[in-house]
What does this fold into?
Amino acid sequence: MDKLFWPVVALLMGGAVTVSGGCRGSGGGIPFSLVDQPQAWAVLAEQPAYVVVTEGNWQAYYGAVPPQADFNSKFYVVASWGTKPNPGYRISVTGVKQSGATVEVRVRLDEPDPGKVYAQVIVRPTAVAEISKSSLQQRGSLTFQFIDQKGNRLARTESRL
It folds into this structure.
């Protein structure tokens, strides 16, 4: 087969993004929905980016409002794992919970299975959780902490909601 065939197939099939665990989650915390087309929300950076996107800051990350964004009643938690060399790298948001002014976002990072062969294409694994502002216990200035499945803190950011 043509050398370009498999990389194109991987990209068309969403190889840069894998969402696991269905379309809704709560994990005993704040309910959220996973955005259907997270690649449109990818933060174009070589390094990982973990951000909270609101009506007040979306212009800092995107040239246009991302598809189906509803900033009036919702905000978006974007976990982007940076640039990776193949679609074996996957990221997902698995839980969101709040304790006072701190919101913890649980993220699962999956590396390629060493027993599999992957197309060598540049990907930006991204997961986006859509969260209703009304589901927050407290609003105002909040601290968002992104934690991976091993308990490592990936990022800490402040946002006003």
Remarks:
- DSSP finds one helix and nine strands in the chain.
- The helical segments are 5-12.
- The chain has one domain: 5-160.
- The two ends are 51 Å apart (CA to CA).
